[in-house]
Amino acid sequence: MELEKVHVVLFPYLSKGHMIPMLQLARLLLSHSFAGDISVTVFTTPLNRPFVVDSLSGTNATIVDVPFPDKVPEIPPGVECTDKLPALSSTLFVPFTRATKSMQADFERELMLLPRVSFMVSDGFLWWTLESARKLGFPRIVFLGMNCASTVICDSVFQNQLLSNVKSETEPVSVPEFPWIKVRKCDFVKDMFDSKSTTDPGFKLILDQVTSMNQSQGIIFNTFDDLEPVFIDFYKRNRELKPWTLGPLCCVNNFLEYEVEEMVKPSWMKWLDKKRDKGCNVLYVAFGSQAEISRKQLEEIALGLEESKVSFLWVVKGNEIGKGFEERVGERGMMVRDEWVDQRKILEHESVRGFLSHCGWNSMMESICSEVPILAFPLAAEQPLNAILVVEELRVAERVVAASEGLVRREEIAEKVKELMEGEKGKELRRNVEAYGKMAKKALKDGIGSSWKNLDNLINQFCNNGT
Questions:
Q1: What are the counts of helices (DSSP H) followed by strands (DSSP E) for the chain?
Q2: 69, 167, 224, 360: which could form a disulfide with 443 (CB 3.0–4.6 Å)?
Q3: What pTM does this model have?
Q4: Locate the Tudor domain: which residues (predicted)?
Q5: Which residue, 387, 338, 395, is CA-closest to 360?
Q6: For position 106, what pLDDT does the model report?
């Protein structure tokens, strides 16, 4: 059967960590030779447009701006992306996300001016887009830039009220459907098990998002079948919402021809080249664009890196590292402050042999695809569950352990860094991650990879057979 013309609308949440994988999805759709005639329209806001335009350079994607509301209480003027919210401002996530609802009328007005939409993929945080899709008569698929494991584990914990009566923050409890996996209260968002949470604005927002997700026509995970088959199979058997595994989306660029060599290399790439030429292995250190890390913890990380004696490239926000640190480590370390870096290129660099990470899922996928073992330092959101997956299930990572007061001490960091970069454990992790890296590339192999076939099926279902 010949496909009709396909028009896909994408609407990512206004955060770099959410935009990047969905823009990679846009490239995947536009490179889909089987469909032959796909058009993609991406919605964003005026201040996010330059990033979207740059990310989609060389494609024929249409980009449409919808104004972000003015004068949102608590949100500074000119902030249209969570990355620009003030530091240590997790409390602003809820009002910022709620404010996106004010974009709905303009969003629907722009949709009506577009060619007929085959289906829409919108971020799970943008719950209100389901109502727009229903009004205009096309399917809405939820984009969840996460793995499947953290999703089903989280579902199990809350559906079974697994931790509601557990007083200790650190007592391990087995997950009923996956009894070999143990979780703790501290692995989840603080106060989520408090009975008062049902009146909490954050809890109400999550409830709206989950309700909207469950009423949609499918869900896209940024993962691939061979990475977590047990959890994907469980989701398919036990959830009504159909899952589509289309990852690893960070590998999409490797299959396209648009990339050209940079005319001028950034300073961090020149530094990595020098390390490679000297035969030095480098630890890449990054905790994401929105990490909330205390000054004391940052100092412990810095001192741990100093004591480890390994070479490192650290991408950090602000200037809260103790005085004299950079002078003491000298050429062995490079600090990149308040600068966006191409993390994928860093991880693919020949000198980079380890990654100290907060365990955001984009970072985990990029590290696995680059075949770089991980030192897991989860901080927030679903990151502790991601750490469980990469440490205990995939065995591509080691995890740092916090002291009794919750701080990860310099001695722990130094010891684990040295083991990752130079020890037997690091060698084992490297062998494992290399195997998964090869599987990741195979998943997106044109025409025959599992994720590519899943994309074929998705397009066929929503473009020829309706919802």
A1: 17, 15
A2: 224
A3: 0.90
A4: 243-308
A5: 387
A6: 97
Q: What would the pLDDT profile of 204-259 be if each residue is shown by its tens digit?
A: 888 899 999 999 999 999 999 999 999 999 999 999 899 999 989 988 865 444 44
Distances (CA, A) of 320 to 81, 301, 333: 23, 12, 16
In single-letter form, the type of residue at position 95 comes to: P
Residue 344 near residue 415 (C-beta atoms within 8 A) = no
Largest CA distance in the chain: 68
Residues in the chain predicted with pLDDT less than 50, given as ranges, are 1, 35, 88, 255-260, 465-467
Give me the sign of the Cα torsion angle 82, 86, 91, 96.
negative
Report CA-CA distances (Å) from 399 to 351, 389, 416, 417. Answer: 22, 11, 8, 10
Length of the chain: 467
The neighbour count for residue 372, using CB atoms within 10 Å, is 25
User: For 90-142, how does the pLDDT look when each residue is reduced to its tens digit (9 = 90+)?
Assistant: 678 889 999 999 999 999 999 999 999 999 999 999 999 999 999 999 999 99
Gap between the terminal Cα atoms of the chain: 17
Q: Give start and end residues of each alpha helix (H) in 112-265.
A: 129-136, 148-159, 201-214, 229-238
Q: What span, in angstroms and rounded, lies between the C-alpha atoms of 394 and 379?
A: 20
**How many whole angstroms separate alpha carbon 6 and alpha carbon 36?**
9
- Token pair of 24, please? 């990679």
Give the pair of three-digit tokens for residue 219: 């869900």
Q: Give the DSSP per-residue string, 192-213.
A: TTSGGGGGSHHHHHHHHHHHHH
Question: Rounded CA gap, 109 and 274, in Å?
Answer: 53
Q: Cα–Cα distance between 140 and 9 in angstroms, integer?
A: 9
- Token duo for residue 83: 């990355």
- The domains of the chain, with CATH numbers, are 6-247+444-464 (3.40.50.2000), 267-440 (3.40.50.2000)
